[in-house]
Give the backbone structure.
Amino acid sequence: MVQCFCGMVHDLGRRGFLGALMAAAVDAQAPAPASAGPADPALIEDLVIANHILYDQGVVDGFGHISARHNKDPNRYLMSRSMAPALVTAEDILEYDLDSTPIDQRGRAVYLERFIHGEIYKLRPDVRAIVHSHSPAVIPYANVKVPLRPMNHIASFLGGGVPVFEIRTAAGPASDMLIRNAALGHALATVLGPHPVALMRGHGSVAAAQSVRHVVFRAVYTEVNARMESEALRLGEPTFLNDEEAAAAMKTNDALVDRPWDLWKRRVTAK
Ligand code: MN
């Protein structure tokens, strides 16, 4: 059960908001068009830059990945071949269908956990970009019962609750913790439900958003918020943004993501 921005408590596992999303997702998957052609080069460029920014900002290291839904075909997404994000170039970007099968693999290795992306895109027609990371300040909130909550207005997207995915529920007690098939990806996507961020116990987190720039913003500030919250908990009992403040601040921030993006981009492109 999760308290949402709207004030309602949604049972994400069975009905309500998620049920509506899943019905919409079926519609989104229904057509199986021929490839709509190459993705917008500007989208590829943003995706490459995003890989570099996420490393520069301490969200990913050798591990972690970011994807973008194909701008011409909602049943496809774009993501690097299996490699460290900081080293990704446009030539490394592959196209996948929503079952996370590469369209033209050409012998290249693919991320074991690509199913995170395909299964979230299936359930969330609104999502156009996803980050999976093991960013270190966030993981403690996946492993203890203290919830991750918005400390300041920049991380207001954390309002409405941050669900935690327990892989033992879906994979039993002896998994290697990885989202290595579609069933586990679907289980994670179901726990994420309508939220922007979900935590993965003993592993990391996922962030979802309407664009590459928005999802980078969310991934970076999820990590920043986790650091702030841990510091606040050392000092005393924090007051968090309430759901109304969070919803209002998120609306404001969603219009401002280009400002930090331009700064972060300059850091990784300036030579
Ligand atoms: Mn992982």
Remarks:
- Strands lie at 2-3, 9-10, 65-69, 76-80, 93-97, 129-133, 164-165, 197-200, 204-209.
- The pocket of manganese (II) ion is lined by residues 63, 113, 132, 134, 203-204 (CB under 6 Å).
